Amino acid sequence: MLDNPVLQQVRKDICDYGLIEPGFHVVTGISGGADSVCLLKVMKELGREYNLSITAVHVNHMLRGTESDADEAFVMDLCRKWDIPVRAFRADIAGISRTDGLTEEEAGREVRYRYLFQVLRESSADVIATGHHYEDNAETVMLNILRGCGLEGLAGMDYRSGSIIRPLLGVRRSQIEDYLRCEGIPWRTDSSNLSNKYARNRVRNLLFPAIKEHFQVDPAPVINRLSALARRDNACLEEQARKVFMEFGRKMDTGTSLDAEVLVSLDYAISSRIVRMAWEQATGSLKGLENVHVDEIIKLCRESGTGKRLCLPGGWSALLSYGRLLLSPMPAAERVFWSYPVNVPGKVHVNEAHGILEAYVLSKDQMTRQFPNWQEIKETSKTQAFDYLKINCGINIRNRRDGDRIRPFRAPGEKKLKKFFIDNKIPAEIRDEIPLVAAGSKILWVVGMRTSGEFRPDERTQSFLVLTWIDINDGGDKK
């Protein structure tokens, strides 16, 4: 019946926040407790109106022995009675907690969501519904306050976060239990909820009752009002930050980069959010990034010079490189060197640089016929010509070495390759990947960028060494 207060509230919130659409397939988490049983019942009732498909998911945490097994049996029996498909999983949460260095609460939450998203993908469902309610949000905000949160923490839970919906967020715990009693629906009581071993239980069982007793105020409505105001303001700041991030952020193969000058020109309320967005895009989640890391990253952009690197959690780093902030995995401590001899004529496959080098020699007449404008070949061309007789030793294609030198064409004097890279603003993290054609420590060609004037052909050249670089990843591009 839709005149029940719980159903009325949920139906209103579904409409107000666009939680589900007709025909949706909803994956619903169910532990066997009052909240999740109520959620499943509400989804079943509203399913007739919205033509919903429902799949229930239960995760046995294996923390309470026979009690955990009895919860699983209860859920399986309930779903059979209600004719709702159910997927049940088992996970050694205590073991996972020890192995991963997490609290049992954290490990349980991560495992539950892992299975919920697994079922979401496998069943091609639309959303995941969880049983979080009014008091849950108040407890979450209080825990965030005790950890020293910012506006995001004060915002607490939202009715919708990506694929996750929380239809009961506007419903009080007492309403949930009244609804189940009225409907004659049993539920399981988790004995661990009575223990103050867990931080959330201490907030629920000790802190909130003390506030109610000593201040004569129910903390849940007050904190939820704070949460709603913070959520509204936070959404505005997030939207502003996302617009800047979309304009000045750039996804890379191994991370994300940002315009450092733009970042430091913004108010911290926006720049800190942009850093978090970049971290989430680069790593796949916000996990591991604390406020202290955000502060250090922004300080790096404001006060450091190019080439400065900051170590971040999870093997990631922040590098300032020619006006851009690069969030990427920390490079391996050990450089990997590679080198291949170049036979003339011949071809060399260079797997490390994802390309092929072709080499052959042409006479002056042949060169003029094949490349009538060879004097005008651009430095960025993937085909270059050299005076073969000026090369008095074998050549190799390789990556850089300490001591490499080049005399850039049409530039005064010789310089170290490292100085050449710095002058041309080549980021340090990609310098080892650039293929070089070298005669000993002298560089003939920085492929795709510059040739050496020392080995360039001229009007007196009789034998032309022609080198062509083919990018395998570009479908054989020789331009």
Describe the structure in brief.
The chain is of the alpha+beta class.
Q: In words, what does this structure look like?
A:
The protein is of the alpha+beta class. It has helices spanning 5-17, 34-50, 66-81, 93-100, 104-122, 134-146, 151-155, 173-183, 199-215, 219-248, 260-265, 268-283, 291-303, 364-370, 417-423; strands spanning 25-29, 53-60, 86-90, 127-129, 160-161, 164-165, 249-252, 255-259, 309-312, 316-321, 324-329, 339-341, 346-350, 355-363, 383-387, 396-398, 405-406, 415-416, 436-439, 442-446, 450-451, 463-471. The chain has a six-stranded mixed sheet, sandwiched between helices. A five-stranded antiparallel sheet has the order 7-8-11-10-9. Strands 12-16-19-20-21 form a five-stranded antiparallel sheet, with no helix packed on it. Helices cover 41% and strands 21% of the residues. α10 packs across α12 (268-283) and α12 (268-283) crosses α13 (291-303). The model has no long low-confidence stretch (mean pLDDT 92). The protein has three domains: 5-222, HUPs (Rossmann fold, 3-Layer(aba) Sandwich); 253-329, Uridine Diphospho-n-acetylenolpyruvylglucosamine Reductase, domain 3; 339-474, Phenylalanyl-tRNA Synthetase, Chain B, domain 3, CATH 3.50.40.
